[in-house]
């Protein structure tokens, strides 16, 4: 009995899993039945005996009637079937012949009309079959949705297929450059491993940790490392996956996510880009039934609803837009702690490079400190891409190991773009570019507070750059003084000024330089309070600290006019100062142009050597005295 029940259960499972196959078999059976009924037109038994069925021409049929060889005739709209005296069935195509009936009557042949089709077959092909086809398509789509989305009404609302559950093998050894952030989450790992140590003291571990920082700094990697170090399940889901066009779906998926985590507790729930659902409810008009608001409310309830002592589930979320998150999400008891995962400093960049070099064959002569200085301001993802790009370059050149030149080329590709070897620049344009870049390089070296030159090149790169000057700061800077901002403006204006002094005509090559110089002067007035125009009043507010978003302007038209006048006058003042400097160092510019025109690329040490030689030759007081010790050491070694 039990065996039969099991068999029945298996059959039901087969039918439930294969509805399309059952529908196809059922349709074939129905068509065959209708076909069998359709073939019985009521004349088969009267006309067919043991003879054969033969198709003949209509003229032959008329001749057989005259010869008394036909005994019975059935006429339809398209065909004529006749029973022959020899026992055979003769079929011919009906033609328009008004003499047919009189001929049959004169020969005393019985005839009658019949229909080629029947009601059942008409019903099948006109109504039943289309309905079954539509029903089959609907079942197919429903089964597809159920497989992809899980249970529920057609599977809508379930998050089980969207949740990534795993036990990561990543540890803190795989995370570098964010030592302060790692220190903030170490106690989370310790709590997940030894919760009694904290519960005994009455301490409560934070329920939620919010990782904030620029893109590519390793927020997701850090969250995975926490789960890997604690050896607990890691449930991850993107916040955008909660949002659907159906109201209530997001809330349902939040419940599924936390239910799955509670079953496997202790566990970590990771929500990436939480700003997709956690946006402040005061940021704009949102209705009471708004799907995003319902999803956020459900998330808030879930974070309040579980007992961290009984089912330790730590929620880690990541975002690069913390300023737009709802205040209820950031209060203590939900996301108790915000951890900044910022771009790495010099030491951090070297550590990140070492992590990504583990599986890459690197030459013993590679100088990681030089690569670390060249990559100022880059995030961990950028550094990983540089290592991979260098490995690809080495492989393309059939090298056995990645060399220093490959890494430097990868850095330049990341910063300035791909080298355009096929782009041919005529002699006139090349001369303009060499003076332009020489101007940038000279001002960067002789201006106090400017970033020193690492390389100058007149080889086209990227989409539109015909040359570039690579500047590297002496150290990591987290703030800039007024004279440093003005130094950066001077360096930007030096390219156009060099064209005016030495070419006697300006070109379009300085458009981006002028744009950046204008932005710096405007920021000094409107955001940093470095002028008498607005004093200490802030005129613009930056909307996003990590994405470099747009600024919010809040000042009158009269103030805008004053700002414009100040920016214009300041740019003119700095431009005149740059012109004077270039005229003073005209010989150094000419020497640099000759070297650039011949070699196309010169290093920063060569630039400083040319300037120093000109100062000694001309009796000028050296303005290279603010070099760092590392640079001086590099010049001596060269």
Topology:
Blueprint: H1 2-17, H2 19-39, H3 44-47, E1 53-55, H4 58-66, E2 70-75, E3 79-84, E4 89-93, H5 100-106, E5 110-113, H6 119-149, E6 164-166, H7 179-193, H8 195-199, E7 208-212, H9 219-230, E8 234-238, H10 249-263, E9 267-272, H11 275-278, H12 291-305, E10 313-319, H13 327-330, E11 335-340, H14 346-356, H15 368-374, H16 380-396, H17 404-416, H18 427-446, E12 452-457, E13 468-472, H19 482-503, H20 511-526, E14 540-542, E15 551-553, H21 557-584, H22 586-599, E16 601-603, H23 604-618, H24 629-637
Parallel strand pairs: 1-4, 2-5, 7-10, 7-11, 8-9, 9-10
Antiparallel strand pairs: 2-3, 3-4, 6-8, 12-13, 12-16, 14-15
Helix pairs in contact: 2-6, 7-9, 10-12, 14-15, 14-16, 16-17, 18-19, 18-22, 19-20, 19-21, 20-21, 22-23
Q: What does this entry look like structurally?
A:
The active site is at residue 437. This is ATP-dependent zinc metalloprotease FtsH. A six-stranded mixed sheet has the order 6-8-9-10-7-11, with helices on both faces. It has a five-stranded mixed sheet with strand order 1-4-3-2-5, with helices on one face. The chain has a three-stranded antiparallel sheet with strand order 13-12-16. It has 638 residues and is of the alpha/beta class. Mean pLDDT is 79; it is low at 1-15, 38-45, 149-159 and 627-638. It is 52% helix and 12% strand. The longest helix is centred in the N-terminal third of the chain and has 31 residues, at 119-149. The protein has helices at residues 2-17, 19-39, 44-47, 58-66, 100-106, 119-149, 179-193, 195-199, 219-230, 249-263, 275-278, 291-305, 327-330, 346-356, 368-374, 380-396, 404-416, 427-446, 482-503, 511-526, 557-584, 586-599, 604-618, 629-637; strands at 53-55, 70-75, 79-84, 89-93, 110-113, 164-166, 208-212, 234-238, 267-272, 313-319, 335-340, 452-457, 468-472, 540-542, 551-553, 601-603.
């Amino acid at each position: 009995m039990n065996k039969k029940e099991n068999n029945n259960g298996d059959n039901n499972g087969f039918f439930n899993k294969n509805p399309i196959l059952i529908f196809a078999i059922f349709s074939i059976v129905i068509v065959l039945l209708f076909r069998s009924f359709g073939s019985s037109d009521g004349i088969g038994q009267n006309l067919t005996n043991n003879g054969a069925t033969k198709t003949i021409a209509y003229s032959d049929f008329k001749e057989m009637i005259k010869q008394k060889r036909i005994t019975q005739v059935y006429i339809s709209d398209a065909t004529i079937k006749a029973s022959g005296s020899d026992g055979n069935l003769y079929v011919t195509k009906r033609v328009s012949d008004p003499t047919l009936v009189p001929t049959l009557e004169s020969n005393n042949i019985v005839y009658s009309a019949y229909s080629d089709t029947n009601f059942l077959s008409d019903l099948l092909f006109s109504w039943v079959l289309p309905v079954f086809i539509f029903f089959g398509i609907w079942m197919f789509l429903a089964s597809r949705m159920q497989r992809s989305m899980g249970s529920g009404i057609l599977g809508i609302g379930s998050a089980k297929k969207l949740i990534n559950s795993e036990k990561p093998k990543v540890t803190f050894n795989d995370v570098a450059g964010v030592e302060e952030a790692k220190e903030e989450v170490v106690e989370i790992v310790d709590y997940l491993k030894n919760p009694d140590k904290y519960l005994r003291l009455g301490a409560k571990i934070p329920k939620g940790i919010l990782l904030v920082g620029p893109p590519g700094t390793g927020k997701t990697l850090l969250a995975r490392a926490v789960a890997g170090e604690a050896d607990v399940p890691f449930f991850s889901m993107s916040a955008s996956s909660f949002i659907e066009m159906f109201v209530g779906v997001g809330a349902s998926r939040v419940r599924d996510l936390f239910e799955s985590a509670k079953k496997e507790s202790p566990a970590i729930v990771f929500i990436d880009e939480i700003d997709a659902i956690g946006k402040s409810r005061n940021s704009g008009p949102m209705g009471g039934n708004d799907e995003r608001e319902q999803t956020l409310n459900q998330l808030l309830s879930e974070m309040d609803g579980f007992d961290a002592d009984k089912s330790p589930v730590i929620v880690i979320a990541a975002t690069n837009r913390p300023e737009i998150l709802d205040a209820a999400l950031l209060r203590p008891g939900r996301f108790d702690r915000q951890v900044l995962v910022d771009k790495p400093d010099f030491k951090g960049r070297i550590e990140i490079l070492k992590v990504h070099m583990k599986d890459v064959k690197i030459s013993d002569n590679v100088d990681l400190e030089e690569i670390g200085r060249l990559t100022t301001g880059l995030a961990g993802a950028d550094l990983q891409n540089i290592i991979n790009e260098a490995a690809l370059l080495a492989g393309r050149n059939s090298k056995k190991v990645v060399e220093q030149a490959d890494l430097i080329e990868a850095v330049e590709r990341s910063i300035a773009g791909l080298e355009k070897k096929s782009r041919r620049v005529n002699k006139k344009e090349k001369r303009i570019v060499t003076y332009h870049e020489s101007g940038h390089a000279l001002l960067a070296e002789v201006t106090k507070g400017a970033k020193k030159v690492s390389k100058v090149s007149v080889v086209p790169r990227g989409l539109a750059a015909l040359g570039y000057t690579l500047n590297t700061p002496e150290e990591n800077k987290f703030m800039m003084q007024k004279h440093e901002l003005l130094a950066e403006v001077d360096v930007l204006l030096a390219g156009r000024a060099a064209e005016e002094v030495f070419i006697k005509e300006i070109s379009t090559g300085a458009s981006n330089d002028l744009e950046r110089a204008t932005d710096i002067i405007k920021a000094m007035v409107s955001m940093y309070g470095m002028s008498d125009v607005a004093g200490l009043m802030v005129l613009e507010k930056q909307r996003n600290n990590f994405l470099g978003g747009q600024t919010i302007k809040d000042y009158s038209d009269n103030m805008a006019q004053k700002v414009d006048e100040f920016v214009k006058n300041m740019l003119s003042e700095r431009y005149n100062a740059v012109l004077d400097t270039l005229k003073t160092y005209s010989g150094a510019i000419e020497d640099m142009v000759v070297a650039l025109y011949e070699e196309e690329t010169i290093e920063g040490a060569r630039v400083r050597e040319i300037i120093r030689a000109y100062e000694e030759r001309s009796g000028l007081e050296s303005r290279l005295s603010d070099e760092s010790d590392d640079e001086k050491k590099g010049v001596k070694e060269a």
